[in-house]
Amino acid sequence: SAPTPTEPVAEAQTEPDEQPSDEFNSNELLEMFRASAPEEAPQDDPQPESAPVEQALAQAAAQQNDQSSEQQPEENNAPSPEAPPSYELRPDGSFKVISANAWVQGAGTDDEPYVLSWGVLKSIEKLYEPRAGKDILPDWLDLLDGKSVQIEGNTLVPVIATTTRELLVMQNPWDGCCIGVPPTPYDAIEVVLNHDVDFGNSAVGYGTVQGTFYLDPYVVDGWVLGIYIIEDAKYRSGDGVAFPEF
User: Fold this and answer.
1) What CA–CA distance (Å, rounded) separates 129 from 186?
2) Are the beta carbons of 227 and 215 closer than 8 angstroms?
3) Of 46, 77, 108, at which residue does a domain stop?
4) Residue 244 counted as domain residue
5) Which is deepest, 10, 35, 99, 120, by most CB within 10 Å?
6) Model confidence over 171-210: pLDDT tens digits?
7) What letter would DSSP give residue 178?
8) Phi, psi (5° rounding) for residue 210?
9) Are the CB atoms for 104 and 97 separated by under 8 Å?
10) Do residue 133 and residue 104 come from a single domain?
């Protein structure tokens, strides 16, 4: 009776020994198949996966650019404190130049011309510098453009002649060479007279000029050579700064 229980035990031991061998072989085949399959899949998968990622990044960048571009006009359109009014206008036509802290009296007519001072004209020296990128004239000059003005200053005849209809009006006396202070574009005005003037033997003088004021900036390579012109002008001589005698 003893051997009968041992036989089933031996059979039970042999059956499990054969089954694992079959399962192991099948697993090896599966692993071999899987090992060969991914070699082709990654070649195709990255291309379709990377394209959507690049598109998403491009769309996100475009949205950021759109948002920034939409925000910039709002900031630029906002009132800027950097550009305050350059003048104050009175009902009678006179106005105050803020940069010079001075009033220009008159109405711009022949009977009541604007009376200019050199301090007012020179006040644009730091505001109008094309070489430094400041190439816009202050808007208060538009009030003078084409209007009748009057100014007093030193005069210089540009040509040697007994009579002339052209002269230069300046803040400081200058003989055109080495005596006096050479003018700048901000403190000199080119004048075209409507009548002849006789300066005698002297090319310099002093007097009052009244005529039509025009803006005519003359700029070469960023350097300002001239700005102001008075045409159809009348000249009246007066006492100014006398030149020293040598």
Assistant:
1) 11
2) yes
3) 77
4) no
5) 120
6) 999 988 888 999 999 999 999 999 998 877 778 889 999 9
7) S
8) -135, 130
9) yes
10) yes
